[in-house]
Amino acid sequence: MSELTLTVMRLGFLAVLWLFVIVAVQVIRSDLFGTRVTQRGSRRESARPQQAARQAAPPQQRGQQPAATGGRRGRNAPTKLVVSEGTLTGTTVALQGQTISLGRAHDSTIVLDDDYASSRHARIYPDRDGQWIVEDLGSTNGTYLDRNRLTTPTPIPLGAPIRIGKTVIELRK
Amino acid sequence: MSSTTNTSTQHTSTIGAIGTPSRRNTELALLAFAVVIPVFAYVNVGLALNDQVPAGLAAYGIGLGVMATIGHLVVRKFAPYADPLMLPLATLLNGLGLVAIWRLDQSERLQLSKTYVEASPRQLLYSAMGVALFIVVLIFLKDHRVLQRYTYISMAASLVLLMLPLVPGLGLDVFGAKIWISIAGFTIQPGEFAKIVIAVFFAGYLMVKRDALALASRRFMGLYLPRGRDLGPILVVWAMSILILVFETDLGTSLLFFGMFVIMLYVATERTSWIVFGLLMSAVGAVGVASFEIHVQQRVQAWLDPMGEWELSKTVLGHSAQSMEALWAFGSGGTLGTGLGQGNSDLIGFAANSDFILATFGEELGLAGVMAILLLYGLIVERGIRTALAARDPFGKLLAVGLSGAFGLQVFVVAGGVMGLIPLTGMTLPFVAYGGSSVIANWALIGILLRISDTARRPAPSPAPNPDAEMTQVVRP
C-alpha cells in the first residue's frame, strides 16, 4: 500500500473520529428539553418578590371567574413548575396538563426527601379550565400557599410560593 | 366548550415544543456512524499490515452492527425516552477497542510470546455478552427506584464480591494483584461488578443519612466540620479501601471505591469539607500502605523513575519495563500518530491489549486521536451527570452521579497511570481494553444509566379523561 494512501487514511480516520465527537456535541446542544436547571442565587431572589407582587391581585378574581377569555389565560398560563428551595432546588417540571403529585412516596412525580413531608403530601392539577390547583392530601404538616395553610383545593397564582416542609415550589411562565 | 378545548390543545402543543421528542432516530443515526468508524479503522489496519482488506471484516462489521441494532431496538421498545448519546458512544468505544485488540493480535512479536491467545474473537464474544446484559437490565429493571429496596443487600453483595479474590482456591494472584477469581476455567474480576452494586448501596444509604451528614456541623475556617460520630461511614469505607489495598494490592480498585464514595457524599451533602477530608484520608492511606507494601512501592518507584525501572528490568527480575515503553509509544506517536497498524506499541508485550491499550491509540492515532477518545469518555460522563440533574428522585440522582463518577474515575486512573501522571495500577479502560468482566459490567452500567435517564426524561402521563367532562357540558357565550 502506498505511503500516500496510508497518510490519507490516517488523517481521514482522525477527521472522522473528531467529526463524531462534534456531531455528538451538537446533539447535546440541541437537547434543550426536559428538566432544566435555573440560576440559583441573587437574581432569582430579587425577581421573585416583584413577580409575586404583580400576581398578588389576580388570583382571587381568577379563582372566582374561571371563564376568563382563552387568550388571556393562554398568555398567563404557567408552563413549568420550579423547585426554588430545598434539596431539589433547580428541578423543573414542564406542565402539560398532567397531575403532579408531591410527597415522599417513590412514585410521586416530585419525590420529596424531607422529614416534614408526608408520603402523599399534595397534588397539583389543572381544573377543566386549565387553571392550576393545589390540593393538600391530608398531610401531617400541611401545605402552605404564601403564608396560608391550605384547607381546600386552591388555585395557584403565578409565582406564588407553595411550601411543603423545607421545599418551596412555584409555577412560572 | 369548543373554545376551551381549542385552548387546551393549543396549550399542550406550545409546551410540546419544550417537551419530548424521544430522539430515538438521532440515536439510530449516531449508531450507524459509530459502527462505520470501527469498520473504517479495521480496513485501515488491514491495508497497513497486509496490503489487503482483512478477511474477517464482514464478521466484525456485522457483529458490531447486529449488537448495535439489537441494543437500539430494545432501547426503542423499553426505554423510549432514554438519552440518545450513551449507546452510540459506548458502541464506538467498544468497536475501537475491538479493532485495537485485533491489531495487536496480528503482531508477530506478540504471537511469539508464551501467553499469546487470539484475543479479538473472545472480546467480540464478551461484547455480545455485555450487550445481552445491557438488554436484560433494560427489560427487567422497569424502574431504577426498585433498586432502593436492596440498599443493604447490595452492601453485603458488594463486600462478598470484593472479598471473593481472597478466598483460597478461588482467587488468582496475577503478577501481584489479587483481583481475579477463577470459576470453571473462566477468570472473572468481581471488582468490576462490585462497582455497580456498591453504587446502589451508597445511593440508598446517603439518601437516608444525608441530612444528618450535611446539617450537623460546625463552621471552622470556611469549612463545615462534621461531628465526630458522623465521620463513621466515611471511616468505614476508607478502612475497606485500605484493606483492599493491603490484601489485594490493587491501588486502582481501592481508589475507585473511596473516590466514588467521596463524590457521592459531596453531591448528597453539598459540603466541600468532605472532599478535603477524602483527599487527606486517601493521601494518608496511600502513603501509609506504601510504607510497608512492596508491590505498591514498586509501582511508585516505576512512576517516579520509569527510565531507571526500565534499565533495572533488563537485569533484575520483577521489575517492569512497561511504564517506560508506554511513554515511548506515546512519544513516537506525536501529534497525528503513525497511522493505524503502523506503530510498534506491541513492544510493550504483556498486557499491551488490556491495561496498556491506550498506548496503542497514543502511538497510532497520536495526541489528536487520544484526545478524541478521552472526549468520548467525557461525553459519557457528561450524559450521566446530566441524567442525574434531570432525575426527579434523590435516589436516581445519587445513583447516576455515582455510576458516572465511577466510570470517569476508572478512565482517569487507567489513563493517568499509562501516561505517567499517577502511579500505574492494573485497571481496564472501560469498553476498550481486553477483558470480559470489564466490558460486561460497563454495558450493565450504561443500561442502568439509560434506565434512569428514560425515567427522568419521560413526559408525565397524559391526564386521565375526566368522566365528569363528558357529563356536564358548560355552556359559554
Description:
The complex is a heterodimer of chains A (173) and B (477). By secondary structure, chain A is of the alpha+beta class. Chain A is 32% helix and 23% strand. Chain A is built from four helices and eleven strands; from the N terminus they run H-H-H-H-E-E-E-E-E-E-E-E-E-E-E. Chain A has a six-stranded antiparallel beta sheet with strand order 2-1-11-10-7-8, with no helix packed on it. Chain A has a five-stranded mixed beta sheet with strand order 4-3-5-6-9. The longest helix of chain A has 27 residues. The N and C termini of chain A lie far apart (63 Å). About 24% of the residues of chain A have low confidence. Chain B has 19 helices and five strands. In chain B, a hairpin with a 2-residue loop joins strand 2 and strand 3. In chain B, helix 8 packs across helix 17 and helix 13 packs across helix 14. Chain B has one domain. By secondary structure, chain B is mainly α. In chain B, the strands form two sheets. Chain B has a three-stranded antiparallel beta sheet with strand order 1-2-3, with no helix packed on it. Chain B has a two-stranded antiparallel ribbon with strand order 4-5. Chain B is globular. Chains A and B meet through helix 1, helix 4 and strand 4 of A and helix 1, helix 2, helix 4, helix 8 and helix 16 of B.
The chain pair with the largest interface is:
A-B, 56 and 74 residues
User: Taking all residues together, what is the mean pLDDT of chain A?
Assistant: 75
Encode the helix/strand succession of chain B as letters: HHHHHHHEEEHEEHHHHHHHHHHH
Total individual domains of chain B: 1
Write the layout of secondary structure elements.
The complex is a heterodimer of chains A (173) and B (477).
Chain A: H1 3-29, H2 42-56, H3 58-64, H4 70-76, E1 80-85, E2 92-94, E3 100-103, E4 110-111, E5 122-126, E6 132-136, E7 144-145, E8 148-149, E9 154-155, E10 162-164, E11 167-172
Parallel strand pairs in A: 3-4
Antiparallel strand pairs in A: 1-2, 1-11, 3-5, 5-6, 6-9, 7-8, 7-10, 10-11
Chain B: H1 2-18, H2 24-50, H3 57-78, H4 86-105, H5 108-112, H6 119-140, H7 151-163, E1 171-174, E2 177-183, E3 186-188, H8 190-215, E4 217-220, E5 223-226, H9 232-248, H10 251-269, H11 272-290, H12 294-304, H13 306-315, H14 322-333, H15 357-364, H16 366-390, H17 394-419, H18 436-457, H19 467-471
